[in-house]
Amino acid sequence: MTGANRGLGLAFVRQYAADGWEVIAGCRDRGGADELRSIKDASDGRVTVERLDVLNFSTIASVAKDYNGRAIDVIINNAGEMAPKREDIGRQSFGSMDYGEWARIFRTNVFGPMKVSETFLDNAAASDQKKIVHMLSTIGSNLEGVRTPVFCCGPSKAALNKVSILMAEALRDRGPRIVSRPCEDAPRRSRREDRPADSIGGMRKVIAGLTLEATGGYIRYTGETVAF
Hints:
The strands form two sheets. A four-stranded parallel β-sheet has the order 3-4-5-6, covered by helices on one side. A two-stranded parallel sheet has the order 1-2. By secondary structure, the protein is an alpha/beta fold. The chain contains seven helices and six strands, in the order H-E-H-E-H-E-H-H-E-H-E-H-E. It has two domains: 1-52, no CATH class; 74-218, 3-Layer(aba) Sandwich (Rossmann fold).
């Protein structure tokens, strides 16, 4: 699990750990991940926190070395960026684009998941479940995301969806089931702070039921396919 120290990643760790899973929780700054470390401390050894920064490939290689030969059932590429913040939306808008920021977002949202998947492929292939999950957003859909003109994030999520489709074909003979999904559409009736738990609960059902035939799908947390 990448990006495990906040939001959806933290909800994933909390729910899987509560259900007795062993969780490898990767984050950029272990020292500042207070809530994640609290979950780890209460997990009876089921949660391990690793320094893993998807922008720093050497950290990915370092973690992979420690888990060489170990089967990992589900690899969740959750780390991602929506930045710039909404109040500074001009930095990813037409006519005022911050191209350095755009490049950083692509490195985080596309190159990072690809590199993690390449690096830990053998771990997934050696497991019983053989699942790789890419966390997306409906902002990457050409139909659902077109009204949100954020040029940094939207194209990066669309690119990750394409990467998922290409990976599904490239790895079909190896067996990994690859699913890409939107992550920001938890029920609007719930309180904002409850949305990650609502969304992750649904997504865990999708992951549990993922078959090789469904690999490469763009699947909402409800199990519905997102129109791309």
